[in-house]
Amino acid sequence: MMFWIYFAAIIILPIYAQFKVKRTYNRYSQVRSTSGMTGAEVARLILDQNGLHNVKVVESEGFLSDHYNPLTKIVALSSHNYHEASVAGTAVAAHEVGHAIQDKEAYSFLRFRHRLAPVANLTSNASWIFIMIGLIFSSMNSLLGIGILLMAVGVLFQVVTLPVEFNASSRAMDQIVSLGIIRNEEEGHAKKVLNAAAMTYVAATAVAVLELVRLIFIFTNRD
C-alpha cells in the first residue's frame, strides 16, 4: 500500500500538476481581458504604480518561460503573455511583478531563497554521487548519509519556494483587482490560473520531501 502511495506521489502528482497548469493556462489564454491590456502593459502599470520604474519588462522565448530576475531587475514574459490581452497573461504578468515587489520590500523568504540558491544548486548536483555510491555499496553507508545531508539543502530550497510563490500570487491578485485591471468573473479566472501554477511547485516539493524521507528510511534501517 505504501509503495502505491509513494508511486502516485512521485509519478502521478507531477504529471497531473503539469496537465492542470497547461489546461488552465490554455483555456484562459483564449479569454480576452476586458481591460484590453497586454501582459507587458499590465506588468508596466503595476511596476510603475509601485515605484519600480527601474525594472524592465522584456519578451522571453519558450512556453510559460515567464520569470523575474532580481539581479538584472527584469520581468521576462513569454511571447503570448507579452503581446496578447488575456486573463491568463494578466495573471502571469502580475505574478512575476509580485516577485519584483517582494524584491523591493526585501521579503524575507525571497531573500533567503536567493542566498540559498547557489548552495542548493551545488549540493543537489553533488548529492546523487554520494547517494548512488552509498546505495550500491552497503559498506559505504556514511556516503549515503552525506548525500542525504546535501540533498536536504535542495529540498529546503524547494520548501522555501512555496511561500515565495504563494505570496507573489497574493500580491498579484491584490494589484490587478485594486487597479481595476480585471473585473467581475475575471477575478475567479485569474485565481484559477495562479492556483494551477502553484500546484506545480507543491507537487515538486512533495516529491522532493518524499524522496528525502525514503532515503533517510533506508539509511536508518541499515544502521
Automatic annotation (TrEMBL):
InterPro entries: Zn_peptidase_2. Keywords: Membrane, Transmembrane, Transmembrane helix. The keyword Membrane applies. The chain crosses the membrane at residues 116-137, 144-164, 198-219. PANTHER family: MEMBRANE PROTEASE YUGP-RELATED. This is Zinc metallopeptidase. It comes from Sporosarcina soli.
